[in-house]
Amino acid sequence: MELKRRSVLAALGAGTAAALTGCGSGASADGGSADGPAKGEITLLTPIYEKADGKKLLEQDIIGGFHKKYPDVKVTVDYTTYTQLNEKITTAMAGGLLPDVMMMGVGWIPPFAAKKAIAELPESLAAAHDYEKRVLEPSRYDGRLYALPVVLDTRIVVYRKDHFAEAGIKKTPANWTELRAMAKQLTTKGRIGFDPFSAELRQVWETFLFANGGSLFSDDGKKVLFNDTRGVEALQFFKDLIADGSADYTKKTELGAPTNVQTGKASMMVTTSALWKQLQDQKPELLEGDTLGAFVLANRRPAMLQGGTLVTQSARSKHPAAARAFVEYLASPESILGAAKQRGSVPGMRDLGAAGTAYTKENEFVDLSLKNLGNACSEGGTAAWMEIREKIKPTLEPAIVGGQSAAKAIAELGKLAEAAIARM
């Protein structure tokens, strides 16, 4: 009865912590032996490879190439979205029906590794390709490798060069003081100087926290660190921009819609490298005319949030050799490059050959991101992350849209995070 109750709670989204507790104790952390021949029928759960072109890339090109190498393995794909992914995984955990191979977000590995839902991978895979150290950090838990990076989605600032020229601004801001002053200077009737809100609020606040020299959690993931002055100042900066009239939470755009920068309704905005591909489809003249530039946010230090998609293996797979082989294939240069091109994302490794070099040079936002991977910071870092991440936006939003102070909102979020960690 207890398993049934938790399964229902997970399916209703009644709390990640409850759903995770529903994980049975029979899972093996090593996913069984992956030393035998790769054969059998396995399932992939993925939130990427969207739309017709993504499905074609995955099923015909990537899985087609995998079948040539491993003809005795059949792959069935279960498509989902990042909005539904956590619920889908936790529901599958409660029912004991985890997919053999899963794609997850940055920050997701510690929670699922702690519950022995995913299998540890050989450390040799971390050295198989030219990974930046920071790219591999989110793939680890307790010092062990549990996933491989596929594509990265970095948070950078894109700006209108023509707006800067009109205002006589000759350089990008080196710190928040300059950023605030420029945003005020660029704000005119019908145009805001800076749009930090069209990107996910959780990740934008984290980017500002990191740029302010702050951290989310201690290295062991057991202590909350963001509830100090660095975290408060990051949230307060948003309130200051709104007070100046140079940012407006009500004018944020939805994912995939024409952005405020491309329509000229904002001079600067926080976004991802994928905006380059969106502009190619919706407003190519901005790229052809060299109208847009990009920079990495900085205050006490330069910082670029590193999100993205990782691939991992279920600890419960009945065909661990096939699952391990598919994980490695999805994280191979050919597969990664295809996924990056389709999404306009940053490849998870550097050694992609001539085709990879051509792609990264063509997408200037990707190029900027690759050059700044040394400044990349990842969200997550605690086994309680899946519960905490869902509370960040609703806890911080009242300080932006209402009269709550930044200090009170951060203190409240800190208490929620500490309670979540204590329950682990």
UniProtKB/TrEMBL annotation:
Pfam families referenced in this protein's UniProt entry, alphabetically: SBP_bac_1 (PF01547)
PROSITE patterns: PROKAR_LIPOPROTEIN (PS51257), TAT (PS51318)
InterPro entries cross-referenced by the UniProt entry: Bact_solute-bd_prot1 (IPR050490), SBP (IPR006059), TAT_signal (IPR006311)
Stated name of the protein: ABC transporter substrate-binding protein
Lineage, broadest ranks: Bacteria, Bacillati, Actinomycetota, Actinomycetes, Kitasatosporales
